[in-house]
Amino acid sequence: MTSKPLVRAVLTVFAGAALLGAGYVIGTRHASIGAAAAPTAVAAAGEKLDPKTGRKVLYWHDPMVPNQHFDKPGKSPFMDMQLEPVYADEGGGSYGIKIDPGLQQNLGIRYTTVRRQDTTGGFDAVGTTQFDESRSDVVQSRVTGYIDRLYASAPMQRIAKGAPIASLFVPDWLAPQEEYLALRHGAMDGGLLEASRVRMRALSIPDGVIADLDRTGKAQTHVVLTSPETGVVSELNVRDGAMVAPGQTLAKISGLSKLWLIVEIPEALATSVQPGMTVDATFAGDPAQHFAGHIREILPGISTSSRTLQARLEIDNSALRLTPGMLMRVHVGGQKAASRLLVPSEAVITTGKRSVVIVKNSDGRLQPASVTIGNDVGNETEVLNGLNEGDTVVASGQFLIDSEASLKSVLPRLQSGAAASATNPASAAATQTYETTGKVEKVTAADITFSHQPVPALGWGAMTMAFNKPAPNAFPDVKAGQTVHFVFKQTDAGYQLTKIEPAGDAK
């Protein structure tokens, strides 16, 4: 009787020990699994690994809209297709694309180094020549008379200094001159003769006419008005036979030896322009001839039509090469020199929304870099942000590698086909075609819409999109709902179909 309770106690202790051991083993296993899983979770959170391939993903995008980036995979909001990953080890990633050296030479790609230089800055503008109004002269009549001959025939007529403008007949001059001659013939004393001369001067009879009266003894009733300087008759207000009154302006003479240059300053630079800044101007008809000067004054007010501020200066035109109304190319120089980061202007691609420079990395790969640009300095452009001194950038041929789409599709095809395109790169690009299989969704006179399979050569996944037809009556047998194999090429107007055949006949 006592042995049975003892056996039960032993069995109970043994079962408890077994359960305790099993719990320990299970707990240890779970702990090891958690410890092993922890590094994987950290790596995934920090690097965005592709669950299918395990490769590092920079971002996901729609190949048809490459500039739009997404942090997670999913369906494209633009096309009927899944977003595709861009891997860090691909040419389209942040490491750029490498182009065959022979192809670079054939495409005429040149490089230049970003440099820093002390410049006075300044900017380019346009200007217009005008008459210097401060040097204009007016020809007026001081007496009542009649124009018996008008030498200047029309406004804007060129005229030399001292050339006649008009001849006036002045009847009121006859009586005082006859009175003076009578006094002189009557041997009157000098006091009366001098009083008569004073009266003639008061009637605006010129001293030259009085001198001729003493010499010839004949009264003169005509006077010729002449040009005070060489220039043009900018205004002509009388005609032959017209009566003129004292103080009436007959003509206005504008000189050409000095001209005004009115410079149109962009509104954004209005606050940086000051009197005294240097100006160098050239005319398109003779770019080798430079006209220099300093801004004399800033005219008040902004033009509502051109949104520009006008600055005025005087330029020397003693050689008479310029005439009013000429359009001039103007460079306004800065007042103080400053250190600026410069690249050739041709290296900057400006799209309106951004400015891009293609940078060459230390390993020879090319990648676009967004930059903030400042003012132009001659043939160079100031870079405010996005580049460092000593960086190597593409100075020509950068249009081939401007966008991310070019980096992911065009350049890899050029790189892989370098041997074929080296002999004739233009022909190779023109004959490049692509093919895939898809279902016809819609047919119009302009295009055909397919739900097609991936196109690896372009980096496309499966999607639905429209392709242009070469002509409205092309491919008349293609109907919606058919599954076909089609060939297309890239043109300036988009992707154009070149061949369509039933999928069962595809090679």
Task: Please render the helix and strand layout as text.
Elements lengths: L2 H45 L9 E6 L2 E6 L13 E4 L13 H7 L2 E4 L1 E5 L3 E9 L5 E4 L4 E6 L6 E3 L4 E6 L4 H12 L4 H13 L4 H10 L5 E5 L4 E6 L6 E2 L4 E7 L2 E9 L11 E6 L2 E9 L2 E6 L5 E9 L10 E6 L5 E7 L4 E2 L4 E6 L5 E12 L2 E6 L6 E5 L7 H13 L1 H4 L3 H6 L2 E11 L3 E6 L10 E6 L14 E9 L2 E9 L5
Antiparallel strand pairs: 1-2, 1-3, 4-26, 5-21, 6-15, 6-20, 7-14, 8-10, 8-13, 9-12, 10-11, 12-14, 15-19, 16-17, 16-20, 18-19, 21-25, 22-23, 23-24, 23-26, 24-25, 27-28, 27-30, 28-29, 30-31
Helix pairs in contact: 3-4
Brief digest:
The chain has helices spanning 3-47, 101-107, 174-185, 190-202, 207-216, 404-416, 418-421, 425-430; strands spanning 57-62, 65-70, 84-87, 110-113, 115-119, 123-131, 137-140, 145-150, 157-159, 164-169, 222-226, 231-236, 243-244, 249-255, 258-266, 278-283, 286-294, 297-302, 308-316, 327-332, 338-344, 349-350, 355-360, 366-377, 380-385, 392-396, 433-443, 447-452, 463-468, 483-491, 494-502.
